Amino acid sequence: MFIAAAPLGVIAALFVSDIIMLIAPPQRVRAEERLRIGLFIVVLSAVAVKLIVLQDHKPLDLPGARFIRVEEGQGATLRAVVARLSRCRNAYSLPSLMSLHIWAANPPLTGLNINHPLAFLTDSQQEQVVSALDAAPGLCLLHDPALMEFFDRGQMAQRPPLLRFLEERLVPVERIGPYVVYEKPDGPEALPSPSAATP
Fold first, then answer.
1. What residue intervals traverse the membrane (predicted)?
2. Where do runs of H (alpha helix) occur along the chain?
């Protein structure tokens, strides 16, 4: 976003520089100084606007996220998800949501983690993950359906092993904002049917 706005910043700096030239005689302020002053004013303005915007955002208040500020509703959702993951004996997320694992102090069950495992893990690698998940007691799988659809480039239609495991071996037990928590059917909080987890 900053890179996309950089050309506008240069234009704004030149505009401010021209205003300075109109106010102060050219012999008193050289072109480089005008540009420096213009850039300073633009950066100062950008910082002021950012601070005004951040007033509406609250600290996330999670371990390692001290400087992250989000809208209040989003923060509440993330804190609820982290609290839920921290109660699980074992956890995995699909697609991989590493920040949530870090904040919950509950690392993913396997080292085969990548933003979109359906696209970047081979079927045999996914089967290794499925074996580890299947053997894990107290498993919680955190699923973000919208993010998975965003990443999808046709892999979901091929029904890869991780997706089959999610659909055939797990049941949804809780929905927190856009996230759905899945457990094994014999898990302590399993619901009788997938419809029970939808809002």
1. 6-25, 37-54
2. 2-23, 31-54, 72-86, 98-104, 117-120, 123-135, 145-151, 161-169
Over residues 112-130, mean pLDDT: 81
Let me know: does 156 contact 163? Beta carbons within 8 Å.
yes
What span, in angstroms and rounded, lies between the C-alpha atoms of 145 and 176? 12
- Going by the DSSP 8-state scheme, the letter that residue 108 receives in this structure is B
Secondary structure of residue 180 in the 3-state scheme: strand
Query: Is the pLDDT score of 187 beyond 60?
Result: no
Q: How far apart are CA 198 and CA 122, in angstroms?
A: 31
Element (H, E) at 93: strand 90-94
Provide the whole-model pTM.
0.65
pLDDT-derived band of residue 174, with 50, 70 and 90 as boundaries?
Answer: very high
Whole-number Å distance between alpha carbons of 69 and 20 = 36
For residues 94 and 123, give the distance between their C-alpha atoms in angstroms, rounded to a whole number.
15
| Arithmetic mean of pLDDT, 32-56 | 69
Crossing angle of helices 123-135/161-169, nearest 10°? 30
- Give the span between the Cα atoms of 100 and 97, in whole angstroms: 6
